[in-house]
Amino acid sequence: MESRKDRNGDINYTSNNHTTTTPNTNKTTTTSTTDKDHQPTLCMVDLHHIKKDTTMTREGTPPLNGLTNHAYIKGDDDTDNNVTTTHNSSHRGTTSKGNEKDKYKGGEGLVEEIPPADQDPQWQPGIERMAILKNLIIISMSFVFLFTSYNAVANLQSSLHRGLGTFALSSLYTGMVISCLLLPTWAVRTLGEKTTMFLSTACYSGYVAAQLYPRVYTLVPTSLVLGAAAAPLWAAKCTYLTKIAIRYAEVTGQNSELVITRFFGIFFLFFQSTNIWGNLISSSVLSIGVGGITDAANETEANLQHHQQSLDTCGYHFCISEHNATTSSEEEVVVAELTWRHYIIFAVFLVSSVCSALVMMLVDPVTRFVKRDPSQDDKSIKELVLATFIHMRHPYQLVIIPLTIWSGLEQQFLSTDYTAAYVSCSVGVHMLGYVLIAYGVSDSLGCLTITALMKKVGRVPGFVIACILNFILITVFIYWPPRPEHLPWLFICAAFWGVADSVWQTQINALYSVIFPPESSPSAFSNYRLWESVGMLVAYITSTALCVDDKITILLTFLVVGMVGYVMVEVMERRGGPPKDSQGKVIPLDKLIISCFS
Description:
CATH topology of the largest domain: Growth Hormone, Chain: A
Structural class: mainly alpha
GO molecular function, one term: potassium channel regulator activity
Number of helices: 20
Region (Disordered): 1-38, 71-122
CATH superfamily of the largest domain: MFS general substrate transporter like domains
Largest sheet: 5 strands, antiparallel
Helix content: 55-70%
Number of domains: 2
Organism: Petrolisthes cinctipes
Protein name: UNC93-like protein
Family: Belongs to the unc-93 family.
């Protein structure tokens, strides 16, 4: 008999056909035997846990995140070929890397992997990793097609259709807010992530198609439908990415928080590039036409003459309502001249939105990687519909609402107020597309690099850097009177705002994924989209009612209050999380407040 220690400190005694492993700590004995009448089998007995838990199971995964494992005992007299496995109710079965290295050679005593019933028998960890990454790229590309068209159409909406366009966008955001309260959790639980994303993307095509025949009875209904579909779309997308990111971390043995951040960084790298493609398409099509160059030159000269007379109103003291009152007649002439070009633009964007739905069909169901939680199937429709409201009682959710609203406000400020008060007012509307392209490029590159930065310094410095960057830019906007000769600075400010936005988009999404458990992802991301939409809706409704100085005051308020709430979350996390009851469940904030006075 030969004895040796392996790398784990276990002592292995080996004879002809008998191997016994004695660990130093866990008191586990593994025996493999062969004879002429029986195939090799594996017997695993956990002497420490066997009396506490004798649950037997065939499916599962190795122990992860401290979850309880259940021993399965297999002897020579059993009739089937089951082998030792462990069970995790949230994920599908696989064998650990350690077992992979302990397989016998030459066909003797081979330990087989037990695939789950709904998986490919040839499924391997390497193939699974590639499949997860493939679905991440497919979803990202689908969103690129979708929001290249939607963002560009939304940017053109109010200027093309005047009051009708403004009313349609207000209807869109109103529908989105209502949808966030009622639909996402029910849709994700009932239809699944893939079906929800596919149906939601299809609803965007109707909105884009309505631009070809803009009337009240075409724009308003399609805007409401799009708003209702947007909330389930984003909730399903975020839930899908969170689940496959956690699964990818388990397969590769990486930190789940870093993988979640990386996945959202990759997604927003693609997503934020839509500002580039949409503006490139719009600018290219609008420049087509006989005499287009001459007309553009004349328009630029006229705009510059007008801007020289009104430069004092640009910047911090800009009021868009007063600006529209003096330029409405000129804009109507330009819109009438470019109508046929707009039809070309909308046709291109309609094709793009249809392609988005077709690409989304290629996504694998999330159950291919993560097993469906059966406990969620018992919930009634009422519970699913009210899940978003119930989730608001979570202490974390309440304190990060201001930061989530800030996310919507800062995006809308750049796309509406900055472009109007600082770009169009000082150098003319012909530069809008180029400035937004600079914003999109920096935003995309920021999403690409933010993951590597967060891996080295953590998420707290990332939030602090973004906060400082936005605070500096807002201070510049207060004291800077833009002029035509300041054109390079218009690009620089937009680019740095894009860098800060890349942090907010990736890190707030990742924060929701980390601080809330996976089973509450749909309701958590419903709240995320709800409060972000509230910020966008407030910014859009007040775009003509308030001047830039009032909007900047609102921005600063939500930035400061939002960061205070974020710091509170980090402090609670470092102290062990929010208060819990005797069953380990988080105590809702309203009950905490009542208990303080009782």
